[in-house]
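Please check this.
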Amino acid sequence: MTAAPPRSPGMRIAIFGNSGSGKSTLANWLAESADLAVLDLDTVAWEPGQPAVERPSALAEADVAAFCDAHARWVVEGCYANLVAAALRFEPLLVFLDPGLEGCLANCRSRPWEPHKYPSRQAQDANLEFLVSWVAEYYTRDGPMSLRAHQEVFAGYAGRKIEFRRVPGLSPPEPGVLALLR
């Protein structure tokens, strides 16, 4: 039997949703605003230096648990329902971003260069057509990166949770975003 993690006064937040839903932007804003450690789940889901090679789920989930255990104050974000679920035993506030297809596509088309994922802006832009197609499939595909999996994790979580049905405003921060800091 696995022991429950120790309770901590630290702030813990898990954010998930479709690609382009605003997860990274919100996570980074929260991290800066509240001095939180950040884990982008892409960094544990894929083999380092090989973004097309998925790591075994058990290893990625163990890395999530290790990160959550190592920090009293954190935010994790990504589109992997199984990896978000690995963080839920630490009783975070669960934030589900579901701004719809058009909101996600607009964000994907305007996203800044992500140097931790792509060697150059040109390499990232070369992947945009694939990303747009993948974002659209979110609503019909199965698996841990699907709307169905996200809805199941969200519905099944008994802790504090909130769902945003649009991209939350950060400049200035809207009341719903400010509430995440409490």
Observations:
- Strands lie at 12-17, 37-40, 46-47, 50-54, 74-78, 93-97, 161-164.
- The two ends are 32 Å apart (CA to CA).
